[in-house]
Every structure is written in C-alpha cells, then in structure tokens.
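Extended Data, panel c. Modelled sequence:
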Amino acid sequence: MDSDIAFRTIALALGVGLLLTVIAHKFDFPTIVLLFAGGLALGPAGLGWIDPQSLGHVMPVIVSLSIGIILFEGGLTLKPADYTASPTIIKLLLTVGVLVTWLCAAAAIYFIFQASWQISLLSGSLVVVTGPTVIVPMLHRLRLKDKLGSILHWEGVLIDPIGVFVAVFCYELVVVEDGSSAIAGLALRLLVGLILGAIGGVAIQQCLERKWIPDSLTNPFALAAAVLVFTCAELISHESGLLAVTVAGVVVARRRSSEVRQIKAFKAELTDILIATLFLLLVSRLDPAVFLQDLWKLVAAAAVVMLIGRPLNILLCSIGSGLTGREKLFLAWVAPRGIVAASMASLFALQLSESPEHAAESGIVETFVYTIICGTVIIQGLSAGWWARKLRVSRGKADGWLIVGAHALGRGIARIMVENGRNVLLVDSNQRNIDAAKRDGLQAALEDAREAEDLRDDERFQNVGQLIALTDNVDLNELVANRWLPFLGRSKLHAWSPRSGADNSEALDTVFNDLPEPSIASEELTHGTAQLELSQDPIADGEIPLMCLGDSGFTLLSRNEKPATNNILRLVRQRSHLGRAIERGGIYRLAKLKDLDTIYHKLCDQAVLKDPRLDRPTLIEDLEEMARRRSPIFGDDVSALHLYSPVLERTLCFLAWLETPVTSRSGRTQVEFVFLLISPTNDSEEPLPLLAQFVHLCHDHDALEAWAAKQETTDPI
C-alpha cells in the first residue's frame, strides 16, 4: 500500500508539475506561483493525492541530487565575459550582500517572532539565495540593458552554494552548538567543493575535447559526470557537492563547442522537470493553517527582507560600481527566491522537528522561507517588467529582424524593410556579402548564424525578434531555425524552402516557396533581370509575392497563404537563366517517337539549325559518350544531358515535350520531358545558376509542366 502511495505521489508530482510549468510559460506567468498553488491543492491539506511522507528517507536524497543537477546547469550558463564586465559588485553581492541579507532577515525573525537567536540566524541564512531557477526566466522576459542582466545572473547562480554553506553553518551552530566545529566544517566544504569541482570540470572538458564520448551519449555522460562530482564531494564533506557541481559547470562552459551547447539544452530541459517535480513535492508538505496563524508576522518579516534588506544590500555593494541610480533602484527591488531556499527549508524543518529543544520553533523556519519565496516571486516577479520600463532599464520588445544571408536578395529585402521603419540585421559568413551590405548602409555581422546561444548575448543581436533563414541549403535553414527556437519561439522563425521540401520541416515556417534558390534570385537582381518592388498592384505573371506590409509591420507569406493586405513586396522577374537559354534554343512538341536516342538526335538537329557553327557528328559522339558514362534520367519523368562546345558564347537549351512518354533505356521509367543543354566550354559561371534552376524545376512535375506551357513553343517536329 505504501509503495502505491509513493508511486502516485511521484507520478502526480512529475505530471502535474510539468503541466503547470507549460501553462505558466504559455501565459508568461511565474512558474513557482502555479506550482505553489498546485502543491497545496494536491497535498494532505488539500485533496491528499500527493503524500510526501510516503517517500520516507528517499525524499532528502531526491532533493539533494536534483539541486546538484540544477546548479550544474546554472554553472553551464555563466559566461566569464559577463563577470569581467562588473566583477566588483558581483564579489560584494556574494560576500557583503550575503551578510547584510542574512542579518536583516535574522533580525526580523528575532524581533517579530520572538524566536531564539539560533533559529533566527538559521531562518535568515535560508533567504540569502536568489537562484537561477527564478532569475534566468525573469531575465529572458525582461531583456535588461547593459550589465544588469549579467549581475543578476551571476549572483543568482553562485549565491546558491554560498547560501547553502551559510545555512549548514547555522544549522550546525543550532544543533551541535560548537562554533569551532562549524567553522572548520565550513572551511572544509569550501575547499572540497572548489578542488573537486575544478578537477571534475576539467575531466569532463577533456573527455569532450578528445572525443572519448560518442555523440549519442554526450548528454547521459554529462548527467552521470555531474552526479559523480556531486557524490564524491558529498562523501568527503557533507553539503560540499553543490559548490562542486557549480564550479564544474563553470569550467565546462568555458569550452564553446557543439557538445557543450547540446549539454546545455539537455540540462535546461532536465532542470524544468526537476524544478516542477521538486517544488510540488515540497509545497505539498505545507499546512495553510500555519500561515494563517502568523499571517501578519510573516508579512512584516517579508517586508523587512524585501524593503530594507535588499535595498541596503544593493546600496552597500554598488559603491564604486558605476551603476546609475535607476539601475540601483531596479536591483534593489528584484531578488526572487527559488527552489534551493525551499528545499533547504524543508530539510532543516524536518530535522529540527525531531529535536526536542527546537521542535516548537521548527515551523517558523519553513513558513518564513516559503512566505519570502511567494512574496518575492509574486510581487517582484509580476512587477519587475513594469518597474524596468518605468526606470528605462529594459530594451523593450524585440521587434527586429535577422536575415541569414547577406546576398543581393537578402540585402534587397533588408533595404526595403529598413526604408519602411523596420530594424534589420544581416548575418553571413561571407566577408564580401557583409562588406556589400555595409556599403549599402545596412547593419550586418560576419558571424555563423548557427551559434545562436553566443550570438543572443551579443549587443548587436539583442533586438532580434524574428528570423528569416535565406540560404540555398534547406537543411542549413532548418538547423539555424532549431538553434534559435529556444530564444524566439516557433512562430518567429521562417526559412526559404522550395515547394518540393515545404512539407518536410516541422520546426519552422517555410516561406518564399515559389522563389528559386536565393543565389539565383540574387544573381538576377545583380544583373538587372529581376527587381524587388513594394506595390499595391495585383500580383502579375512573373511576380513572386514575398511579404506584405500592414499596420503592424511586415508579415511573411507562407505556402498558399493569401496576403492580408494589397501592399505586397514581390520579386519581379524577367526571363530566368533557363528561360533565356530556352529562348536561344527551343521547345518542341514531339509525337510518335519510340526511344530516347532518336529524340536526342532530333534535338541535335535543331541545335545545328540554331547555330550552324555546331558540328552535328561531334554533338552525336559527345552525346553518346555522355549517355554511356551517366544515366540521362533525372527525376521521375525527365531525361537530360549537358554537353559543352567551344564555338558557343551562351548556353542553348532544347526541350522535347513528348505527347506520348517513352521508356527509358533501363525500362523502369516513362520519360515525358527530354532536355539537351549545350554550354560554352570556357564559361564556368552561367551554367551554375541555370542548372540550379533546372534541378529545382525538375523535382516538381506540375511546376515543370506549367513552366513549359508558359514558354514560347516551336511547332512540332
């Protein structure tokens, strides 16, 4: 029976916790608030579906390991460059700030609750932490300017193990009541945590750098390594594991690689699972009646911590930091507490309740800490955005566009968007494209768009709210979109894809489906055979709609989507490379021909008629040699051969459109379209975009048939 209750407790905590997390993210609401309400509703004081007592002695183990994994992920997110931007205030917040918050909170408990000095110091030590679990989501939402975000991030991650050390130090003073022993224990924990964390971090880093770990096992290895570092530190010195895994995470994060990015993404997802499960389990232990008994005392103590302790902390720690008055006011208000404070409070409350001397006061520790958590998360979390805007320390809404591909097409789209009031940044790994964009007066960055995690923190990319991946490589477009997905969201990602691949990607919105490869469109724009126009005229033949401009700005057009406005940005194309080559050659409707060789010979005859300089026997010989070396079948119903001739200056293209399909040489394919392309021997540039368009066209039978029908067709032969 007990095992059934334990199973139900874990299953409900995991399932409901994650469901509430999803709801909180969906509606941009503080996650811990919903988890707090869910824990009370499902716990013994509510419906009774979750019973943390059923987990027995396993509960502290689950909590400790989970917190260790959470802090390892927090260490991975820290960047040394952020620390060097404001090292003084971060050092002070982790030393002087901890002491100020600790003493203010302890004084509030001592005078308001008339508690013993031991319980007061212990309770105060538990609320010195802020924590990455509440700070990081808040920072993503607020988009703070300059170094405010890095200050809060570093404080939130590093203050957790420091706060735990202080709390354990106080607990030993309360229980053991031996000051020298407590001080020695604190020193040992610091030493073990720093040394083992550094060794573990370097070991993990070396395993990744030397490729000792298979790619498919990178995430399990990172998880196992973090647990191992935590366990080794705990076996040597109790409660040193949190510092060890945090330091290990910081060391590993110094290596910028795809493996580290993969580990960060995995750990972030795992952290969400652990926080949701843990918080629901911990909160379910609480009894709302206890809060109501001392409600005014709890509110008064929370007010002291929030309105006196934090402002005094920032006032002292920001001396000589260079922060403005508005920035100090913002830091003085924002200090939400999270899962580490909750878990330590619950563990200490359980242990104190078994002590005859402190059992009566054990409830104060837990209720005070959870009051601080709720007060800071609800009040500060919900008001932080308004306060940041009021003080003008946030960047505002990210409404800029990032275009991946600074070729002529990308530059043309960016130029029109900028002219209509949009903020656009071009990114490309080609220096010539970047130089051309800057000559046009456009913002451009020579970067790899796949490095989303690093670029997101770059000042130039702070205003990016939507992305267009506009390279010729569909797989690369999808990869870029996946890298930016955690930062922008699925609805803000767009990528070029041809019609044939438009339904293959689930991770992004494919756009510009009727557009040829961006490199082809760019070359047409460069040579003046195509133009980008923003016009209210109806879309005409030869025009490809790309975006529409409405009251809310530019909106990209997905496949088969009808524009919401008549003000449409379109690509106006003249004859394409392939179209011009067909004009120089011809399209012929053929009937009653039984084999491909005969059709190719007739096309050679037409080629000689078009340009008498061509030698028919040579064409036939080259054609037969080419057919022997490679299959002329392309796609399902297209046969094509590409020859070269030294007498030509431009490529000729001949198309035989068969009224009755013929069987290929292999006998496995029915051919309806037969292409013969003849290019100049010394021209290595023109055939490339022509062949690219040809390949794109031949993958779609309907598109090919529609294209052929629009060309000027020669009489049947």
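The chain has three domains: 56-391, 400-574, 579-710. This feature is highlighted in the accompanying rendering.
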